[in-house]
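Minimal example, chain plus nicotinamide-adenine-dinucleotide.
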Amino acid sequence: MLTTARGLISRAGKKLGLDDEAINELIKIDKEHLFEIRLGSGKTFSAYRVQHSNKLGPYKGGIRFHPEVDLDEVRALATLMSFKSAAVGLPLGGAKGGISVNPKDLDEGELEELSRKYVRQLRPHIGPDKDVPAPDVNTNPEIIDWMVDEYQKLTGDTTKASFTGKSVDKGGSLGRDAATGRGGMFAFAQLLEHMDGADKQLTYAVQGFGNVGSFFAVLAGESCPNWKLVAASDSQAAVYSPEGLSATELGNYKQDGGRFSDLKKEGVQVTTNDELLALDVDVLVLAALGDAVNSGNMGNIKARIVVELANGPTAEAAFDYLTSKGVVILPDIVANAGGVIVSYLEWIQNRTSEHWTEEKVNNQLEQYMIKAVDALCKTAQERNVSLKEAAFINAIKNLIE
Ligand code: NAD
């Protein structure tokens, strides 16, 4: 992921006429904090915070709790955060954090101890004007609330602007839980405007019906009647119906702990993730994992448009192959930026002691998305490049100007 991210930056930088020194300056990481956290029980974990760039504003990026977290992954995600914020016009920098841990192996007390100790170690390097972390994989508002509380105890800061993704009653923003899926829907709708496809009927499949994928589909079901969801998947299986699926019903089924492999409904076929990717749909929404479409399966893709809601779901070789076949790929750094946009709106609310309505948050999110997609399409057309290259070009322009 780190190599792909740096390759994209380099490619876009060269299109802008930057020399190697300027490109290296964009790739260079400002600071890396690596430390061990030892719990009272004796369990010890490796922890990271990588601060890539604060050229545009305070460092910003999530904290991931996952056994596979390592320094290169955190470096890649920190780098992508700087470019994501820049591509959608936010005055924020890029960072990422993580602890190499499987949170399922810890009881609640240990999880709280781990979260608080992470903040204690990082205290001199984070804060509302320095670096504002947020939740990511396996971290949630409850964990962030412990972190904010710890930060407040250590520093006396009562603004709650030290972290975003808090519980709503503890300074979090309305609309944050749905923000990435909602932002993806706004971005895709705007892309269709540019492709003269806004009024056309289309079919789509969602790989990964989790937080992001399900909100995208449920909200699209409410406001985009021309889009027909025909397939969705979780990690085990996919469900498919050419007649169309109800995203709300599927969302409720998943929320009640259901697995798609066990779904029994007339007209709905249970199939595999591989078959979902190969469906003859207009749009493939990738909302599960990195490298989901790769050199092994890229030849099976029949969709004309790919929406990247996960981070890096199209591997570099697959991206080049699909682009050469005329597939339009709405890139992750814009398509899934809804989360960081609403995080930014949360941070503003904390700084100004305001609490906005969900409508106001969603309206602002939509404006950011429309502006970012318009800029993306303009650059792609003017420079005759893919939307992904255009996203990086726009981000670099913001970073260097
Ligand atoms: P999630 O854990 O809620 O959902 C992920 C979904 O993908 C689950 O339904 C899971 O069953 C499914 N899945 C896992 N492995 C799969 C596989 N091999 N094939 C098909 N499906 C599989 O996570 P999320 O928060 O929805 O995040 C999804 C992606 O979006 C991740 O790549 C994440 O980094 C990215 N992202 C999330 C946010 C956010 O705000 N949550 C913001 C930006 C990017």
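Residues 35-170 form a domain with the Rossmann fold fold (CATH 3.40.50.10860). Residues 180, 207-213, 233-235, 273, 287-289, 309-311, 336, 339 surround nicotinamide-adenine-dinucleotide (CB under 6 Å).
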